[in-house]
Amino acid sequence: MYNVKILGAGSIGNHLANASRRLGWQVTLCDKxxxxxxxxxxxxxxxxxxxxxxxxxxxxxxxxxxxGFDLIFIGTPPDSHMDLAIQAISEKPKAVLVExxxxxxxxxxxxxxxxxxxxxxxxxxxxxxxxxxxxxxxAVELMPHLGSIETLDVEFREHWGGIFTAHPWxxxxxxxxLGFWQKGGGASxxxxxxxxxxxxxxxxxxxxxxxxxxxxxxxxxxxxxxxDKLCLLNLRTENGLVGRVVQDVITQPARKWGxxxxxxxxxxxxxxxxxxxxxxYGGNPKEEMLIKKTRPDDFIIELKHVDxxxxxxxxxxxISLECGLDTMLVVAAAHLSNHEGKRxxxxxxxxxxxxxxxxxxxx
Length: 363
What we know:
- The protein is 32% helix and 28% strand.
- By secondary structure, it is of the alpha/beta class.
- The protein has 2 domains: 3-128, NAD(P)-binding Rossmann-like Domain (Rossmann fold, 3-Layer(aba) Sandwich), CATH 3.40.50.720; 130-294 and 317-359, Dihydrodipicolinate Reductase, domain 2 (2-Layer Sandwich), CATH 3.30.360.10.
- The strands form 2 sheets. A 10-stranded mixed β-sheet has the order 14-13-12-11-7-10-9-8-15-16. Strands 3-2-1-4-5-6 form a 6-stranded parallel β-sheet, with helices on both faces.
- The longest helix is centred in the last third of the chain and has 20 residues, at 321-340.
- The radius of gyration is 20 Å and the shape is globular.
């Protein structure tokens, strides 16, 4: 049984607390705002999961215990993640899990976190939990049957009204980081699950990491908002795979979909209240697998994955710090590409900072 500390009592913090308790782990939940802790105990947690769990300890951030935790989860806004993750590592837990997106597009302190994790041996994970889902695992399992891969497409197109339904204390995107791309919000940050899933499939296909990004973003800028509502990406990997990612905060009903297209077949993945994988190869009829689940299941599967990694029961993790940082490099490259109107290349030898990005001189 793990002893877990969770920073942030918003929607994600509640999901992580419930998933931890479902696995029999001890939970300490912290937030800088006492009202958030009251809202968790009196409203969010019992409304979602049936009743409040009295075993969960609640603390304001100023009074939160330091040290002695096996796992520390960070569910606060993205622009606070780096400082909190660095502080969390100093408490010497077995692992730190940071909600996505890992940081802001400025990549401030990303390299510092990467070096610190490597030096201390503390495992750091990033909450892109769709890549550890049953659906994603099935898609990866089917890849060898598809022949040479022609292209890869992933879309996360979803109106963000559902986010505000889950956060009724917010009146809209202007009340949080969501309405500001420089804080990690907007389509490029909030729905960066699509970029991350594209990268996950690319790695498992042996196509390598993204090295070229050509992006077109549509921004909404007012006196109270500055976010991208639409993020279109054309990507190329170090081994030459070309594909596309689309992310937005306007599509309804939502479309969360991906296709791996090979010469001998395809795999489609659809993510929602139920996940669906469809495939056909070798001239055979199309087959499918429907995965029934609940929203809490996404987080339970994620934490089971973390547990398996720590126990040495699995190898490389799709939600590792390096994978999360690779995603943030693409997000940063997308904004730069749109600003300059040119393709941006990524040089991973220069670390996880804006220094890794170069605007190409010609199209």
